[in-house]
Write a structure and sequence with these properties.
199 residues; mainly alpha; 80% helix
Length: 199
């Protein structure tokens, strides 16, 4: 693949950015491997992503990130670092594959769309992890980490195959998580208010 339709490039870029919200380095590794094999074209200035040293670096970072999320309590500390990192990775991932867009438009979409979508997905996964901590004392966090890893991998594959379906599902996932979190918070407040009224 040497070129890509600009609209599909935007869809691909935003889909890969969404995957950064689940795991920061999985989408970057996928882009690097896709560029190395000639399946993903890169924007000017991003040729470094399609090099063997970059693929090795992203592969190592991916393995370390995956392993770190299985360490109890460290996963919550990692979330504080991963949130801004996911935003930056989302911007890089989206900008790197939007090949035929003018620079101003490309960076506008990457900054607002790519960074914003990665941040939303990362925020949703943090909420899920906090809910898991509150419900199980952290016992289910390994399961949450596994689901997030599959989420990252699945989102990358879907972004490449059906980019706009991927975008729609990512947005629906965010809406669902934030609505569930809102119901929990407001439900808890209502229960506390009812308990205080009864005393």
């Amino acid at each position: 693949m040497t070129s890509i339709d600009p609209l599909l490039g935007v869809g691909l870029g935003l889909g890969l950015a969404a995957a950064c919200g689940f795991r920061v380095f999985v989408p970057l590794l996928a882009i690097s491997l896709g560029a190395l094999t000639g399946h993903i074209p890169l924007s000017p200035g991003f040729a470094w992503i399609g090099t063997i040293p970059a693929a090795i670096a992203f592969g190592t970072a991916t393995l370390l990130e995956i392993a770190a999320y299985y360490v109890p309590w460290f996963d919550h500390l990692l979330d504080t670092i991963a949130t801004p990192a996911a935003v930056v990775a989302g911007m890089v991932a989206s900008a790197s594959v939007m090949v035929d867009l003018p620079p101003v438009l490309k960076w506008g979409v990457a900054l607002i769309g790519g960074g914003g979508l990665a941040g939303l997905l990362q925020g949703a996964t943090v909420l899920l992890r906090l809910k898991s901590l509150a419900a199980t004392g952290g016992a289910a966090n390994a399961l949450v980490s596994t689901v997030e890893l599959f989420g990252a991998t699945g989102t990358v594959i879907l972004a490449i195959v059906l980019p706009f379906v991927c975008l729609a599902l990512a947005i629906l996932f965010c809406v669902w998580v934030f609505r569930k979190a809102g119901h929990i918070v407001f439900g808890r407040k209502a229960a506390e208010a009812a308990a205080s009224d009864g005393t």
